[in-house]
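Researcher: Structure prediction, please.
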Amino acid sequence: MLETTMKARVHVMLKDGVLDPQGEAVRHALGAMGFEGVAGVRQGKVIELDLKDGTSEAEVADMCERLLANTVIESYRIEIA
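Model: Predicted structure follows.
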């Protein structure tokens, strides 16, 4: 079994100004359901990583830059617990 000492949570969202068709579909569906108070929706993803002891936040950022986020259109935020 993999021994872990900490978890990382990576929040990936489309950058401001990038069209979010999934978010718009959710906003439209909520309005159709009677939830008229929602002016906009941005949809993203959360990736949880089980990290081995000694893995740095810089390494997680490198993972984001190289694979987990498309940094042309997405931004990310890392939480280490």
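Model: The CA atoms of residues 37 and 47 lie 29 Å apart.
Researcher: Thanks, that helps.
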